[in-house]
Design brief:
- The protein is mostly helical.
- It has one domain: Winged helix-like DNA-binding domain superfamily/Winged helix DNA-binding domain (Arc Repressor Mutant, subunit A), CATH 1.10.10.10.
- Helices cover 43% and strands 5% of the residues.
- Strands 1-2 form a two-stranded antiparallel ribbon.
- Strand 1 and strand 2 form a beta hairpin.
- Helix 1 crosses helix 2 and helix 1 packs across helix 3.
- The longest helix has 14 residues.
Length: 148
């Protein structure tokens, strides 16, 4: 059940939008700059979130993105499933590409009960819970030039 960088960017961007007044359209460039995210990648991610009904895209002079619902009504599970796919919580915590109930990994029987627990926690956590958090100092991973 490993999460991708796209999920990280989605959560960072959505948390920023959730921290703004309800219904306010926030320009994509402002979100990207505030969270130090690549604008092009964030644009594709936000389009996906809009298709899943989590964001509303505003065009024209006040263009940007706004949450489709109140931040307390959008669970982190919903966000992650929109990005990673609905089968996210049916995957193994460790080897999501080749571990299944019919082809279990060595740890499968010992940790399979954790996935519903993780799912439950992420269902209870909402964008409102993330909105008040501080922005990250920097993203994990390497950037151009080989610096983290």
């Amino acid at each position: 059940m490993r999460l991708t960088r796209e999920s990280q960017y989605a959560l960072l961007g959505l948390a920023f939008v959730a921290s703004r007044p309800s219904g306010e359209a926030v320009p994509l460039g402002e979100i990207a700059a505030a969270r130090r995210l690549p604008r092009t990648f964030l644009a594709k991610t936000f389009q996906k979130l809009a298709r899943h009904g989590l964001l509303v895209s505003h065009r024209g002079p006040g263009r940007g993105y706004a949450l489709a619902r109140h931040p307390a009504g959008i669970s982190l599970r919903e966000v992650l499933e929109a990005i990673e796919g609905p089968e996210l919580f049916s995957r193994c915590l460790f080897w999501d590409t080749h571990c299944t109930d019919t082809n279990p990994c060595l740890l499968h029987q010992h940790v399979r009960g954790l996935v519903p627990e993780v799912s439950s926690v992420l269902e209870r956590l909402t964008l409102a819970d993330l909105a008040d958090g501080p922005p990250p100092l920097r993203l994990a991973g390497k950037r151009k030039g080989g610096t983290p």
